Amino acid sequence: MTQLDELVRLLGAPNVLTGADAESYLTDWRGRYTGAALAVVRPGSTQEVAAVMQWCNQHNVPVVPQGGNTGLCGGATPDHSGRAVVLSLGRLNRIRSIDVDNDTMVVEAGCILQTVQQAARDADRLFPLSLAAEGSCTIGGNLATNAGGTQVLRYGNARDLVLGLEVVTADGQIWQGLRGLRKDNTGYDLRDLFIGSEGTLGVITAATLKLYPLPVAQCTALVGVNSVQDAVALLSVARKGFGPALTGFELIAGNCLKAVNDCFPQQRLPFEGASAQLPWYALLELSDAESADHARERFETIIGSAIESGLVIDAVIAENIAQSKALWHLRESIPLAEKMQGKSIKHDVSVPVSLMAEFIETTNKAVQARFPGLGHVIFGHLGDGNLHYNITRGSKLSEDDLLALQDQVYELVHNSVYRLGGSISAEHGVGQLKRDVLPQYKDPVEMTLMHRIKAVFDPKGIMNPGKVLV
Q1: Less Cβ crowding at N or C end of the chain, within 10 Å?
Q2: pLDDT per residue over 120-178, tens digit each?
Q3: CA 22 to CA 25: how far, in whole Å?
Q4: 327 Cβ contact list (under 8 Å, min separation 6)
Q5: Side-chain half-sphere exposure of 423, counting CA atoms within 13 A
Q6: Distance spanning both ends of the chain, measured CA to CA
Q7: How far, rounded to the nearest angstrom, does the alpha carbon of residue 423 sit from its chain's CA centroid?
Q8: What whole-number distance in Å separates Cα of residue 89 and Cα of residue 74?
């Protein structure tokens, strides 16, 4: 019996994919990495995941866990050896339970994020994790990469939204850790080891998630500012004025919105004249516990004061849900517009908010001094210090010429981040993309401890090899 025959025996022929049926699982979302695999397997239960892991452990077959395959660092793509099994969690897609009194829900790893959001909403609750890929990314992938998104300012990263996990270990054991407790001080927190581990320690198969009361109203505003310094100052004003009701604060360079308008003409920037040509914009969202009128009144008061002081040049406050969605759609369309305009060198970095203006100014100057003519696509979650600092070919270079410079550009940007006490990965993870440079920016003791943890949880090295750690 061949290895494929044994996998078919475990899962059934329809759930063991090879050849053309497996191709879509072997290339990452950006098209940067393409690998090969023995097969793509699609277990339908935690027990089947455990059976696959037991088989892979017995035969020393590498395993690459995969959710919605929307990752941006190649963390769910196999290498070229063709030895690995890609473990797709898409069939583990049940909402197992919702406990409104405890404000928790238990969901399987293959649940689409948008499905989880809707299930919570149907129960009159909020699950606040929100990001551009929410219509196709899965909870398992969100937790494996400790996803961020647009509401980290108020609710935290994916890690902060989880109380318990169910995990299949590298040797096929099932850890039943789906506790819905907010206080459980009984030893090491294994949950936090698996979250953010990118499938290198085990396979997350289900999670107990935190729920929150649905806000009575949400209000959104897009404002124009003259500088990043002014945007940071506005963030301080908004935090003081709105407190925890401030759920989102995005920074957007003016050329990003222009690119969206060029690629998607149906999306119009809600400003005219000079206000449509500003260098920077900020997108704010307020969640209110009283009413839509109260939310708008608070927005008008704070933003009106910022306009009077010269901090804000112009502002548009959404009148209704449709307008609010249109403003967010502008922001969420930036990566798509960027992709349509050609390849770019992407960075997902974080620096202290207080140093954001310094980072952008000094790094822009350094890039232009060393690589004259390259373009900048800068946007991100200013509220939590996370910036997507991307470099385009400008008008002079071809895509191939740009990509030939990527290692030098990465080094320049990452060194700039490091000097300011930042991180070279804020929310996208390490994957293959940043694996080799990670030791340059991490404390040596920290790297040693990470390798020791890996050795304990995955002694045979079969869990997502070649990701995160060299």
Answers
A1: N
A2: 999 999 999 999 899 999 999 999 999 999 999 999 999 999 999 999 999 999 999 99
A3: 6
A4: 220, 221, 222, 270, 283, 316, 318
A5: 14
A6: 34
A7: 15
A8: 17
